[in-house]
Design goal:
By secondary structure, the protein is mainly α. Helices cover 65% and strands 0% of the residues. The radius of gyration is 15 Å and the shape is globular.
Amino acid sequence: MDARFDLFENEFGARFSKRFANAGLLIHQSPLPKSTQELVSLRASQINGCGWCVDMHTKEAAAAGETAVRLALVATWRESTVFTEAERAALALAEEGTRLADAHPGVSDETWARVREHYDDDQIAALVSLVALINAANRLAVIVHQRGGSYEPGMFAAAVS
């Protein structure tokens, strides 16, 4: 399956992508730990079946020093021992925030309480924004059939600069 459309080659798509990337840059510069940002982005992308985003966030995390074991276990984080309690709270929020239609309350009070226990207000604002942004990015890439496999660390930043 080939990509249907290249957003970067279209004038409107390129302008939108730059603004979208600026929102991502703001999150990247937040006090939310970078490893948590990549794990959350990876998990939401796995759920949404976004090969491009799974490829990107796996490679960006590895380039930043994340271990292969932790990356391989993100999809099964509940049954794994390699994640901190704070990371587990963030991954739970990412899953519940991604699967809104699958649960009546959306994000459960229990998950929210765990997030509040481990993150301050600025980190929570970044985490909530990240979950929203990665879900939007997943939808963009899946709709246009942007396939995974060719991403190189830093490539997206260069494409939208």
